[in-house]
Amino acid sequence: MTSLLDRAAARLFPDDREHHGVLPPLLVVLTFVTGLVDAVSYLGLDHVFVANMTGNVVFLGFALAGYAQLSATASLLAGGAFVAGAWAGGRLAPRVADRVRLFAVLVAAHAVLVAAALVTSAAVDVDHVLIGLLALGMGLQNAVVHRIAVPDLTTTVLTRTLTALASDRPGPATLRRSLSVAAMFAGALTGGLLQLDHGTPAALAPALALLTVVVLAAALSRRTGKVPS
Q1: Which domain holds residue 112?
Q2: N or C end: fewer C-beta atoms under 10 angstroms in the chain?
Q3: Structural domains counted in the chain
Q4: Structural domain includes residue 228
């Protein structure tokens, strides 16, 4: 698995000076997961985002303006939980020097929160609990992505990615930017289909499976010595 991921990373970052080990393809997977999770939160949990905080802030404004289909409480909860997750990830980051180890630890914590949301989703009237768990996990994910700082692969924000695709000349970054957009779209489409046809557990299950694979791949890359310089 690690050799395949290493080849994919080299394709995404052909310049050795910008090589980030196995992290780039794993970040593409996390971008897909973001689409899944936001499909669950928007379509199944009070029309709120737990990953896209730009949209969430706008939704809060709409809700406070009186738009009845949006909940100010849900938007505030999502934003607060996201910030708490990002804060926790930011406090842990300086204590873990190895980027891949930090990545594995925080994505593992995200997976635990998604697992908790998956179990909780079987109950009734737990929308706010699910929003809190999922937003907290996305805050952790964003904290580690911010910390490892792999160019063009933020996993949640596409505005700058689309701007760069449109304004910059085609080059080595074009592939990873295009993959980031495609992964988010594919995740949202998949999550939307699962959420609308089968409900929240069906949409969260693949998110949990993918997060688990990402953690295992990162841990295996450290064991085999294929880590970023």
Answers
A1: 2-223
A2: C
A3: 1
A4: no
